[in-house]
Design goal:
The protein is α+β, with helices and mostly antiparallel strands and 360 residues long. It has two domains: 39-85 and 196-357, no CATH class; 92-172, no CATH class. It is 18% helix and 20% strand. The protein contains nine helices and 15 strands. The strands form three sheets. The chain has a six-stranded mixed beta sheet. A hairpin with a 4-residue loop joins strand 6 (137-140) and strand 7.
């Protein structure tokens, strides 16, 4: 795992506090808090885990074009536009040794789960993602243990309190990104909630000439999935058409040259957009690719952290602040991070996005 220094100048520029108390710094995992997030270039989980494997050995699968054409036409437009809204995204909270304790109560009758009845520390302000239906929440304990929850229902204070959620699982923020159990977890494919998320510090740090700020692959959400899954997924919720063009959860994708012989180069990325945040995302798609981890209603889109992890702590939504500062387009009052605009056309995506295999 990369250990990098935080970038306080970026936090100043976008309205976030730049320091944490000495107590917080030594009682949370690596000193991370709502106001002191992992910096740009930070790579969660171990280096050899699925989202951290580079695409240098990537090769398109035999029916790559058919699968890409199908996946990119499930939503309009696609790849999905991301707004600064927190709905149905993944908030990650860092627990302190002084945070209150809550006993986990999982509601679904899906068998045994190793976190059922476990008591953990959770920041008092932590909550599931606002809006949407999944209400995900991830909590990183001081030792790096990651507890993930799907459909957080209620958090009741007490001694200890109770956290009610439909289901969940655990892993390690310094371990593998595809969970530790084929029967638990908070995402369809079994990936940890912290994996593959594009984080605000990674976007804020990007400039027109220095934009390789995302040092990991991207968690992808695709509207349909075939029943079954392929590695690195450990389970699935696939129920889509049983056709070869429909991806399994666990399918990898990457941006490559038109021939599919190499990851897309910096010069190719720079020729299609001048926006730093777009270059950062495209570069991650080229260098690490993305992995289908869940189904959604938006066709084919890339996952970001949830603004809930900031706003629940009383901080401004930095995704909204960035959108305003950079004059991003608005849709229904929310700033939109668009990956289809200008030269980034649907035709361009169909030419350069490949469904791939990677030799690990």
């Amino acid at each position: 795992m990369k250990r990098l220094l935080a970038l306080p100048i970026l936090l100043i520029a976008f309205g976030l506090p730049t320091t944490v108390s000495a107590a917080e710094e030594f009682t949370t995992f690596e000193g991370f808090t709502a106001s002191n997030q992992p910096p740009a270039g930070y790579q969660p989980y171990k280096a050899a885990t699925v989202f951290n494997i580079a695409t240098t050995t990537a090769k398109p699968i035999s029916n790559s074009q058919e699968m890409v054409n199908y996946s990119l036409t499930l939503g309009t437009p696609s790849p999905g536009n991301n707004t600064e809204q927190p709905a149905d995204k993944h908030p990650v909270f860092y627990a302190s040794t002084t945070d209150p304790q809550y006993k986990i109560k999982l509601e679904e009758p899906w068998g045994e789960n190793s976190i059922q009845g476990v008591t953990i520390r959770i920041p008092k302000y932590a909550t599931g993602a606002e809006g949407g239906t999944d209400h995900h929440m991830s909590v990183i304990e001081q030792d790096g243990t990651e507890y993930d929850f799907w459909k957080v229902l209620e958090k009741v204070d007490g001694s200890p309190g109770t956290l009610r959620a439909s289901w969940g699982g655990k892993g390690s923020y310094t371990g593998v990104a595809n969970g530790v159990s084929p029967t638990s977890g908070a995402t369809a494919a079994g990936f940890m909630l912290g994996s593959g998320l594009i984080r605000y510090p990674e976007i804020a740090a990007a400039t027109a000439t220095s934009y390789e700020t995302i040092s990991h692959g991207i968690f992808l959400v695709i509207k349909n999935a075939r029943k079954g899954h392929i590695a690195p997924a450990v389970h699935d919720d696939g129920a889509g058409p049983e056709e070869a063009k429909v991806p399994y959860e666990g399918q990898r994708f990457a941006l490559m040259n038109t021939a599919g012989t190499a990851p897309m180069s910096k010069s190719e990325i720079e020729s299609v957009t001048s926006k730093p945040w777009q270059r950062a995302v495209l570069s991650a798609f080229a260098r690490y690719g993305g992995i289908d981890g869940d189904k959604g209603n938006s066709g084919f889109y890339w996952a970001t952290e949830s603004a809930t992890m900031y706003t629940a702590a009383g901080l401004a939504n930095p995704w909204k602040t960035y959108g305003e500062a950079h004059s991003l387009p608005l849709f229904e009052g929310h700033y939109v991070y668009k990956l289809i605009e200008g030269s980034l056309t649907l035709t361009w995506w169909k030419e350069h996005l490949k469904a791939i295999t990677v030799t690990e």
